[in-house]
Structures are given as C-alpha cells and as structure tokens.
Amino acid sequence: MSHERCAWAGRDLLYIAYHDHEWGVPQTNPSRLFEMLVLEGAQAGLSWITILRKRENYWRAFASFDPQRVARFTPARIERLMADPGIVRNRLKIDGTVRNARAFLDLASETGDVATWFWQFVGGSPKRNAWKTMREVPARTVESDAMSKALKKRGFTFVGSTICYSFMQATGMVNDHITSCFRYRELVNAGRKPLQ
C-alpha cells in the first residue's frame, strides 16, 4: 500500500503521527471537540507544530480539556497560566479558553448534544472532498463561515471562519487529505459515521 501522505506533515515525527492517526478522523466526543477548539484557537498566528509540541502541557494546564473544570478557573489560576512557559502565554487566548469552556457548557446544556450541534454544519456526516493538491484546499468555506457566526453569537471567541475550518478538518467533519494520500482512502473506506 502506498504511504504517500499530505505534504504538510513533512518529516517531523510528531506531525506525521498526528496526520496518520488523528487529522480527519471523525470525532463526536465532547471533550475531544473542546480540546480541538482550544488548540485551534491557540494556534492563531502560530504554526500548528508549535501547538502540537505544547499539547501535553495544554492537557496539564487545562485540566485534560474538561470544560466543566476549565469553566471554573479563577483569576488567580489564569495568572498562574500566564507564567506557564509550556503553553502560549497570551492573555486573550487564555481568557478566551475559559470563556469558551463556559459557552461550551451552555451550548451542551441548551442542545443536550453538543456533538450533533457541531456536526449539523456538515449535515451530520463527514464531507468528503477530493483535492489533488494542497493548493486546492480552502482556508474557509460557507460551512465554516456559518459555524463561526453561530459560535460568536453564543459568546465564543477565537472562532473565526479559518479557525473553524481547521477545527472541521481536525475533527473529521471534512476529509481534506489529498486524494493521493493513503489516509484519504482509509477514511473514505471507514464509512461516513462519526466516531465516539
């Protein structure tokens, strides 16, 4: 079997592992969705590999991405995070993560199923694209525009359309592996249902 992969994975082993095992895999687990929302927001203005290298620190700093725990972070806890070299020490991003945890809980409480709410933007199942080169892959789409607008209306921050599209790619709402990548066919063959 060909092991050609998307060029963005490069040669970094962390990047390759993320590409081969996570990126584009459909997710419906609420804490996983919250994690990717946090990490994609943290990436704003930075490279994804920077965030991947800090991911374990984020797990530690943000209570294993448990939105109920993050929502209760106090100003003192936020100050400690501002001194934590293991994460991106940007006050807007740290405050935004706590704010987003509260908004995420409100969304879950209101809808009863936060995963279904997120997946509605792609009709409930992964959208399979068929890009031949990375140049064809968009930075945003009408679906990510709609998700961004809906999230902002609900009080989320760091959820511009480009961040939302990256979130959709990461959580498998869209399959944006190029067609020659071995993961493209594997994900297509895995079916159209999101995973738990």
Quick structural gist:
The chain is mainly alpha-helical and about 200 residues long. It has helices at about 15-20, 30-45, 50-60, 65-70, 75-80, 90-110, 115-120, 140-155, 160-170, 180-190, and strands at about 125-130, 175. About 55% of the residues lie in helices and about 0% in strands.
Q: What is the CATH topology assignment?
A: Endonuclease III, domain 1
Report the β-strand fraction as a percent range.
under 5%
| Helix fraction by DSSP (H/I, runs of at least 4) | 40-55%
Characterize the biggest β-sheet.
2 strands, parallel
Let me know the CATH homologous superfamily.
Hypothetical protein, domain 2
Terminal-residue CA separation: 27 Å
What this model shows, in words?
This protein is mostly helical and 196 residues long. It has one domain: Hypothetical protein, domain 2 (Endonuclease III, domain 1). It has helices at residues 13-21, 30-43, 48-61, 67-70, 75-82, 91-111, 114-119, 142-153, 161-170, 182-189, and strands spanning 127-128, 174-175. Strands 1-2 form a two-stranded parallel sheet. The chain is globular, with a radius of gyration of 17 Å. The two termini are 27 Å apart. The model has no long low-confidence stretch (mean pLDDT 95).
